[in-house]
Amino acid sequence: MNSIRLRSLPHLLLALVLTFAGIQQTAAQATADAKKEGVAPGATAAATPATAAAPAAGGGDAAAIAAGDALFKGNCAQCHAVNEQVVGPALAGISKRRPISWLIPWVKNSSKVVASGDDYAVALFNKFNKQQMPSFALSDKEITSIIAYVTSQEGGPVGGGVTAKNAAGTDGKDANAGTSGAEEGAGKYVDILLIVLVVVLIVLVVTLVIIGNLMKDVLRGRKDLDGRDVEILEQRFDWSKFYRSPVMRGIVGTVFALVLLYEGVQSVMAVGLTQGYQPTQPIAFSHKLHAGEHQINCAYCHTSVYKSKSANIPSANICMNCHSQIKTESPEIKKIYRAIERKQPIQWVRIHNLPDLAYFNHSQHTQVAGLQCQTCHGPIQNMEVVYQYSALTMGWCINCHREMPLNTKDNKYYDNLVKLHDTKNAGAPFTVSSNGGTECSKCHY
Q1: What's the pLDDT tens digit per position in 139-175?
Q2: Does residue 439 surpass a pLDDT of 80?
Q3: Fewer CB under 10 Å: which end of the chain, C or N?
Q4: In the prediction, which pLDDT does 184 show?
Q5: How many whole angstroms separate alpha carbon 169 and alpha carbon 294?
Q6: Structural Rg of the chain based on CA atoms
Q7: DSSP of 357-417, one letter per residue?
Q8: DSSP secondary structure letters along 58-78
Q9: Residue 199 exposed, middle or buried by CB count within 10 Å (0-12, 13-18, 19+)
Q10: Which residue has the higher pLDDT, 11 or 144?
């Protein structure tokens, strides 16, 4: 009877460990499901339902407000907010302060309006330390849509974000607040449950060890035990036989050889691969702050991102559009001033490099294909210090061309090609590869 109890003790411990492992895995999966979030390829840094719900608050044409949202973030958000003064004045109520006939020429060429002697323009120019607003090559319709968007966002939170009414309708509550709160609550209770289970398991293990030692002490004092009970009571595990056995040595040797082989193959395959490269830059610039929190459009700094073979590195004068007024005493901003005073460019360290033998056109992917920055650069709006997110290898590019549907909408050049493709490959998507995107000469010329 006692021997049975002693033999079942390890089995009980093993059962407890396996049970806890199963509960932990289930809880971890529940936590992952509750808190799952991220940036899908092609998602934007500021993807919100603001434009879809905007008409509920400000009225107006939903399409115009949606277009104004994109134009505002791409051209105005760097210096203006709707309900807060940034570099320039808050734009809330702008349509009441100035007529549209005044606003359109002001946006197109503010310096011309100031030079004309317009009282309001001159007063505004002097109020903001004679900081000249850049001229914008926007159409009358585009400027009108920006004003429509600004009007729809008036009265929202500081910073010109989505108004409470826009986000949820008429009750002023965030439509996602209940969901996010439930997810956070579920995650919190799962964490508490895991802590309780860990404490209980530790207490059980300690208790079982104490009980086992007490049982052994009691049994050692008895003289009516048979030989089998004494053997079980006094048995010791011989570790020397374990690690000296040929089987164990063979397993260790095999694992060691496999690890060496794996590391060797990985080292060879990683030649020229710079994924994860994160150099120290001469100025501590935070994409998380600028592209994430302030939602500055990438094209504002990288001006050629939609129209050139490569996305240019921003010049110092682009930084000065804002930092001539904002955080002027910051040690990092003073580095920009010194570069301008010395008439020297800032020596930014390039992160994404392709070999000279490969041809890549940035505008073809961003403007024609309509890809978002995150597709290749990852969650750039969350990076304090930018690093190379994607592998940028030939295999990575080819896989993308095989899977990415080609944007043929409203492009007559592709009409016959799409018809021929659909005739021969019924149901299969018309991908970049279908248009010869995996041919060697496409990238190597």
Answers
A1: 888 899 899 989 888 876 544 333 333 333 333 334 3
A2: yes
A3: N
A4: 56
A5: 25
A6: 33
A7: TS---HHIIIIIS---THHHH-SGGG-SS----S---HHHHHHHHHHSBP--TT-GGGHHH
A8: H-S-HHHHHHHHHHIIIIITT
A9: exposed
A10: 144
Task: Please provide the DSSP assignment of 179-244 as one string.
Answer: HHHHHHHHHHHHHHHHHHHHHHHHHHHHHHHHHHHHHHHHHHT-S---HHHHHHHH----HHHHHH
Supply the pTM of this predicted model.
Answer: 0.51
3-state class (DSSP) for residue 431: strand
First to last CA, the chain: 83
- The contacts of residue 397 (CB under 8 Å, 6+ apart) are 443
For 100, 253, 354, 426, 430, the CA distances from 409, given in Å and listed in that order, are: 34, 59, 30, 19, 12
Cα–Cα distance between 355 and 156 in angstroms, integer? 48
Distance of CA 414 to the CA centre of its chain: 33
Domain annotation for the chain: domains and CATH numbers: 50-174 (1.10.760.10), 393-445 (no CATH)
Phi, psi of 422 (to 5 degrees): -65, -30
Residues in the chain: 445
C-alpha distances (whole Å) from 197 to each of 35, 130, 323 are 21, 65, 53
